[in-house]
Amino acid sequence: AAFFGAVAPGNPVVDSFEAELRGVLGFLRRLGGAGEAKPQQHDLHRRGANTLFNIWIKYKPRLPEWYYNEKLLKVGDSLTQIKEYKLALLQCYGRYLQQFISGNLDDIIDDVHRFKSTFFPNGFRDKNAALTFRALQERNVCIYQMVCSSDRYLQNQESLQTCLNVLSSLRLNMQVALPQENLCWLIYNGTIHIYTICRHLMMRGQSAKVLEYLLWASICMESSIPLLSVHYLTWRATLYTAVSQCYFDCQAGIHGEIFARRGLIKIDELKQLENNSSSLENSETKKIFREATLKMSVMIFKRAVYESRRKPKSCFRPKLRVSLKEAQNLPWPRTTTERLLTEMFDGAAAQFLAILEALSDSSRHVLRPAPPVPDEIEIRDVISELFFAGLEILSGNSIKKQKVLVRSAELHFTREKGVSGDAAVKFIKLAFSYEEWDVFDSAIEFVVNFLQAQDDPTWKKAEMELKLLTLMQPLLFPRKFKHGFSISGNNTKEARTPHSSEKKEMCRSECCSGSLKHGEPSHDLMILATTVFSCVSTSMQNIQPDKEILVDVVMFLWQKCKTGLQRIQTSGSDYLKYIHKYKAYQWVRVLWIINEVIQKSSIADTNVVMLAEITLHLTAILENVADS
């Protein structure tokens, strides 16, 4: 290329190189969206990978090293954008790093001195240092994405260990880059990658293993002077909140509150510096500080609301419990919990968000209701008061259409009085989980009416989930409706369940109490099975019910189905006679529905043993019926 002059557009070697790269990238991009049959797609993908390999080999001796290396990383970035992570790792980032080490890079992630001498022999002021840092970081991102592609629920121990190795490698890369102020962009991007991986692992119950990495990301944001500005405060507060959430997940709530209070001090320090350096504070800056402060306050409230009510073990003073039914007609704040909410938060939206976080527990499942842990009188009182306050806010304020995440690590701050639709749905799920049936029965009608009035199909997912909860309720807890809280206008009032509902519930209770004919599934169970089938039969994958709810519904149906199937299988060789006599064919239908739901949804890889057992049972029954 140097023979033809400057390495720039117009140089025939450069133009040819760029044209061939554009061609192969365009081919791979079109291939990703074409959706051909798999064998053909694999052949075409292999052709594209071989073409890219030949381009690198062909032009390496013809181009200057600096230009060639820059292109390796730029093409790698383009490949990651179209989710060609393996190709980007092997053909771009890996190829760039081969100039430093030919062996396994993971062997040196625990040795900082060897890491420096291997990848930065000329020091950090070398012109290629920034490219090397970038290649190392993007290599880790590609490895993580490849793990997610093959095992997105991280069920294999090997996948989990690979993610932890990636976190260690990212931390080492940031540790070496941290003293270099001009590499602050690398630190910022590194914290984003660490947070993304850690949140994924937290959802898989690995909070104890990722805590140290989230702490590291938070400290990095504080240690880089350019990242201490107000512009990055929202992200820093998100990291603080994730650390606190991690502590709560590890049953170390006191450390979560302490870290949140520490974060509040850091935010206040920055606010003081901002006030001293500038006499004018614009509305955007005020909003950033309000949002960051809210995130920390929510995490403080998450523990304080319970601890403030605990009695010392040595204290036996009597406690006067407030009757929530008697407090309904009192003005807000009516209870100790509502008074604490009023003191700590301004506006119904912030208060409702604090209630959701105080009730959230990563160890709880929506469809596995259970009392609070620890099961203490004071804790039960606080939980009841939180639901009592949440129902009042929900009934006294309109639901907003915006969809916002209610996990405190990703809060959306708003000063409006309205409660977001997602927050309202989350509240109902929590009420089901804690067996707060009065709140559940009162709130669900109000929220379902809102969801049914929306035209946006994305709200159908929430509607499906609430429908499944409603159908599961009488099956899990066959009972008559008690006195509940009903919503009328802007007030929460005690009301009896309508007579028609009493009849319906009595019928449900009878159906679940064993008054059915021998071998026949209950009517409610059949409705649940057909409903969950219709939920996953939609062509839109993104509006299917939440995976956790789907898994629990399928597990419930399967446990019920096993009993009916055992009767069929113990009936001897005369399958057809037994099935028709006792209408046991309904159990076969339920079994078929369970199998179809697993196949049509994304839960097949969550419990492969159950899937195999269901398939074998269905196959055996159909074969025996055919032979009868």
Automatic annotation (TrEMBL):
This is CFA54 protein. GO terms for biological process: cilium assembly. InterPro entries: CFAP54. It comes from the Eukaryota. It holds the Pfam family CFAP54_N.
